[in-house]
Amino acid sequence: MSYNTKPKEYIYQFLENHKNKRFSIKDLNDWLIENNYNVNLATIYRNIDKLVKDNVLLKHQNVDNGYATYQYIENEKCLTHFHFECIKCGRVSHLGAKETNDFLKMIKKTMFFEVEPQNTYISGVCNNCKKVFISF
Ligand SMILES: [Zn+2]
Ligand SMILES: [Zn+2]
Q1: Where are the domains of the chain?
Q2: Is the Cα torsion angle 106, 107, 113, 116 positive or negative in sign?
Q3: pTM, rounded to two decimals
Q4: pLDDT tens-digit map of 74-107
Q5: From the CA of 92, how far away is ligand 1's center (Å)?
Q6: Taking the chain, what is the end-to-end CA distance rounded to the nearest angstrom?
Q7: Which residues have beta carbons under 5 A from ligand 2 (an ion)?
Q8: CATH number 3.30.1490.190 given to 75-136
Q9: CA 45 to CA 25: how far, in whole Å?
Q10: Does domain 1-74 bear CATH number 1.10.10.10?
Q11: Rounded to the nearest whole angstrom, what is the distance from the C-alpha of residue 73 to the centroid of ligand 1?
């Protein structure tokens, strides 16, 4: 195993641990430091850019502040459906293909607007967090 492959392994380890959570470069960097993995920022950016190109990661650029976040794609379907993100626990859920299509059609018909599912996160409160909230 050469030294060059190590950072990639660390990053994959992070992705396996953050499957349904959106993350920033800072989150990844903090995790690497926490685990005593020594990877410099330039290497992190290079690896992340490559993973985005290879469709392993979905990149979401915030229009307001230019800040980018990423989501690990477990299968190709993530490029064509909507994601819901919980504002309390950060968990990302995937909307089914049929529901996504119905929604896209409805928006196109009523708003004359073509939504790009891969760039769209709908924020709210997930079922788990709602339960916790109600029990208080
Ligand atoms: Zn998905
Ligand atoms: Zn939640």
Answers
A1: 1-74, 75-136
A2: negative
A3: 0.74
A4: 777 888 899 999 999 888 999 999 999 999 999 9
A5: 8
A6: 52
A7: 86, 88-89, 91, 126, 129
A8: yes
A9: 8
A10: yes
A11: 7
